[in-house]
Design brief:
single chain, about 700 residues, mainly beta, 5-stranded mixed beta sheet, 4 helices, 38 strands, about 5% helix, globular
Length: about 700
């Protein structure tokens, strides 16, 4: 993060554009990969850290954009999942790549998460690759992403802000301040606003976010932190661009086939209270209580396909129409009214047991309650229209039913967990953990006979899971680690909070992973490197041998691969950050509707990924960065009939300190103006990435 050329400590604070040399992330304690506060070198798993200052210096506009620069992580977001879904190690979606805020898991509704709203509030992002169910519960077979928000500085007051304008009439302004109020009380407050006209017709977006934190340390051993975060987002009402004759036609690159009055809005509000008590060096007690409310709304015409000669849609939907036109269908209105609350507590004990041997043990509990009211208009008359691909009246939504509550659910999660590290001398340690989780989902249907709403109890589903992991770390020297780990995990079938009557007879999918790897710090801390090889197997997929046979929970898929990352600080202010991954993700045993998908690649899973950043601190006042992102080919369907090609984009940033407290940043995105699909929505409907763009920002820091 902002690895600058070596300067005296006092000078590091004088010039805004030059960041202090970052502490090596491999030797810094990290709470995401282990609840014991081990460093990544001491943890038998792959952990990546992206510093918030690096996110802002690179010009990443969203949390998912920053996260997908980590090893083995790719973007699988679209408007249907809140634009936040990720893919990791051959598995994709909110049900396989868990997302957390300050260590608290977010429970998706119908595969959707919409928080946090803005990277300005982010202190750093930790990514744990591979099964994380032992730490955080079901839904983390591919990995877990933990977003840690900015916290108060207890030593000095710091004020910062930025304002910028760029392509597509994009405007943003953000500011933050924090510091000590008294010797025992400190604060942090942040706010951010973004606006853009977007890169498709009627592509306007708007968002704002605010957060505030108070940290009170009444004694040297007790810290109480209260926090509130709010985000309000109106993202682009854009569900993708249909392919014409199975390819992207540049003539419709900026067309938006949604209606004129399409609507998307997300509002999230989180309040938390954390207490940390350290009565001695051997004992730590922590507890965090929280409440998160989410209100999400959609009303759009979502599906578009090119009608080929013969009158059939090319996306495989079976729809027909007039050849040469775009068929628009799936008028959908949905509202999520979700409340998530809970409490997580733990006690950590550190003791010596013999000469050169010691043990660290943490035990704790996790309790969550999620209430969801799901509203929709699925009974409305079908809205279908055919339009000229190049010039058309977008029209308006025709909703003959209206959006109203159709069912509600109550989901309780109770869990107890334990983790232990046994350190045997200075070179070897064994790390193990276990979690027992119990989930209870209840669902009520809401009907409107005679115009009045009535509720009918629909299901009561209970799930019990035990997950565990064990690994060993060998450090021949303090700066090198060799490790191996075996871990288990569970994934829900769909989304836990929207469990349906069709799923009630099934249990969670289960999986396990074997991973081996190496990590090293070298060149006196100026270089780090990691290498990992793994194999994950996921069982109990739903399968149907024929279109009329019963659905069984017998399928299997797997992924095996290699991930590597290296970071170097070289002489003359030059730095390199690079990572890459290669994997083979496969359906091993999967039959659905009488069709066998054995040997195919699961959808939305790129099997090759690479990221490269070159940094140059040319002078004390001038910095340049160039970044390359490569995403390999994917498929949008189980049969691998619809292929999404690979893409490479190049971004660049130039920063110049006009004065010690003011700097100008020029961010260039997609410099070679590559047309590419960030993700897909339906088989041949690509959610395209931002075209070549330039944003200019003025930053201030005091």
């Amino acid at each position: 993060p902002l690895n600058a050329q070596s300067l005296p400590a006092s000078d590091n604070e004088d010039i805004l554009v030059v960041g202090q040399h970052a502490q090596d992330t491999l030797t810094t304690p990290n709470a995401t990969g282990s609840r014991l506060g081990l460093t990544p070198l001491e943890t038998p798993a792959t952990i990546s850290v992206i510093d918030g200052a690096t996110i802002r210096a690179r010009g990443d506009l969203s949390v998912i954009d920053a996260t997908s620069r980590a090893p083995g992580i790719s973007n699988a977001g679209n408007p249907g999942n809140g634009g936040t879904a990720l893919a990791a190690r051959g598995f994709s979606g909110q049900g396989s790549v868990l997302q957390l805020i300050d260590g608290i898991r977010l429970f998706p509704a119908a595969g959707t998460i919409t928080f946090p709203a803005d990277p300005w509030m982010v202190e750093r992002i930790d990514i744990l690759n591979g099964p994380a169910s032992v730490l955080y519960g079901q839904g983390a077979l591919g990995g877990a992403v933990n977003v840690l928000m900015r916290k108060p500085d207890t030593q000095r007051t710091h004020v910062e802000g930025e304002i910028g304008y760029g392509s597509q009439d994009s405007f943003h302004v953000a500011a933050g301040a924090g510091g000590p109020i008294t010797e025992r009380l400190s604060y942090r407050i942040d706010g951010s606003y973004r606006w853009s006209d977007g890169y498709v017709d009627r592509g306007q977006s708007r968002s704002y976010a605010v957060s505030g934190t108070l940290r009170w340390a009444p004694t040297d051993t007790l810290v109480v932190t209260a926090r509130d975060d709010y985000g309000d987002q109106n993202p682009m009402r854009y569900f993708g661009t249909p392919l014409i004759e199975e390819r992207l036609d540049n003539r419709i690159r900026a067309r938006n086939y949604n209606t004129r009055d399409g609507f998307i809005r997300y509002r999230d509000n989180r309040t938390s209270l954390q207490v940390d008590w350290t009565p001695s060096d051997a004992v730590t007690v922590s507890n965090q209580a929280y409440r998160l409310t989410s209100k999400r709304s959609w009303l759009n015409l979502e599906s578009y396909c090119w009608i080929a000669a013969g009158g059939a849609c090319t996306n495989g939907s079976g729809n027909t129409g007039t050849s040469g036109r775009i068929l628009r269908t799936d008028m959908t209105g949905i509202v999520h009214d979700q409340t998530q609350g809970g409490d997580q507590g733990s006690v950590t004990l550190r003791t010596g047991i013999a000469d050169g041997a010691s043990t660290d043990l943490v035990v704790g509990f996790d309790v969550n309650l999620i209430k969801l009211t799901y509203s929709h208009n699925f009974g409305s008359d079908t809205q279908v229209s055919e339009v000229d691909p190049f010039a058309f009246d977008p029209g308006l939504i025709t909703d003959t039913q209206g959006i109203a509550p159709r069912y509600r659910t109550s989901t309780n999660e109770y869990a107890v967990f334990a983790e232990d590290r046994l350190k045997l001398g200075t070179h070897v340690s064994i790390v193990g953990g276990m979690r027992y989780e119990r989930d209870k989902i209840r669902r009520w249907s809401i009907d409107y006979p005679g115009g009045a709403s009535t509720e009918t109890f629909a299901l009561d589903k209970r799930l019990h899971n035990v997950t565990w992991r064990v690994g060993s770390v060998y450090q021949p020297i303090p700066t090198v680690s060799l490790y191996a780990q075996y871990a288990t995990g569970v994934d829900p079938l769909g989304t836990l909070t929207t469990y349906s009557t069709g799923q009630v007879q099934f249990s969670n999918a289960v999986g396990d992973q074997v991973e081996v790897g190496a990590k090293a710090v070298f060149l006196d801390g100026r270089g780090t490197a990691t290498l990992a090889a793994y194999r994950i197997v996921k069982k109990r997929l739903l399968a149907q041998l024929t279109p009329t046979s019963p659905v069984e929970q017998v399928g299997q898929r797997s992924a095996k691969g290699i991930e590597a990352a290296v970071s170097l600080d070289l002489p003359y202010g030059v730095g390199i950050d690079a990572n890459g991954s290669v994997l083979d993700a496969t359906f091993d045993d999967f039959v659905s509707g009488g069709s066998s998908f054995d040997g195919n690649t699961p959808p939305e899973v790129p099997e090759t990924l690479a990221n490269l950043w070159l940094r140059w601190n040319a002078t004390r006042s001038l910095q340049a960065r160039v970044g390359l992102r490569y995403v390999g080919r994917r498929y949008s369907d189980n049969a691998n009939s619809f292929r999404v090609p690979s893409y490479t984009t190049v971004d660049a940033t130039l920063s110049y300190a006009v004065t010690p407290h003011f700097a100008v940043d020029i961010h260039g995105y997609n410099l070679f103006d590559r047309d590419y699909a960030l993700s897909t929505y339906n088989n041949q409907q690509w959610v395209l990435g931002r075209p070549r763009s330039v944003d200019v920002s003025l930053r201030a820091s005091f």
